[in-house]
Backbone:
């Protein structure tokens, strides 16, 4: 854990988040500035900045969690698909490895790498989205 890292603080329970997945390998929570509602960030519990910093023995288990979250986002939100992406250093707003899992539907307005951002109406609406995804986790 890195005392100055926002995602480490969330993983450690020191900062609030709408958590959809939490285990010894990873934590998944709603992005506070989602591309679309239900946009989840999946981060390893260990503080690593980039994919190349993630120990080889954690790559498989971490991406199993990403895969599960992608399925839960699609099922829980009745999305037609999902967009799964990660940045390494450039455009990485928090220097802690994180994978974006964004619900997608046809004609949803997402084009290329222009990511418009939306807001939840309030904490209650955010929690409703998180609960739907949690319920679909397998």
Residues:
């Amino acid at each position: 854990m890195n005392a100055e890292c926002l995602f480490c603080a969330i993983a450690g329970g020191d900062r609030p988040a709408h958590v959809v997945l939490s285990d010894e390998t990873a934590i998944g929570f709603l992005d506070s500035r989602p591309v679309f509602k239900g946009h989840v960030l999946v981060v390893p519990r260990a503080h690593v900045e980039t994919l190349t910093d993630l120990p080889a023995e954690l790559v498989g288990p971490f991406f199993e969690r990403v895969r599960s979250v992608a399925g839960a986002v699609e099922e829980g939100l009745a999305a037609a698909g999902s967009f799964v992406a990660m940045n390494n250093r450039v455009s990485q707003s928090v220097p802690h490895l994180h994978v974006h899992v964004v619900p997608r539907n046809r004609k949803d307005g997402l084009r290329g790498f222009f990511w418009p951002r939306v807001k939840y109406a309030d904490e209650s609406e955010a929690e409703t989205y998180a609960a739907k995804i949690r319920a679909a986790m397998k």
Notes: The chain has one domain: 6-136. Residues 25 and 61 are 7 Å apart (CA to CA).
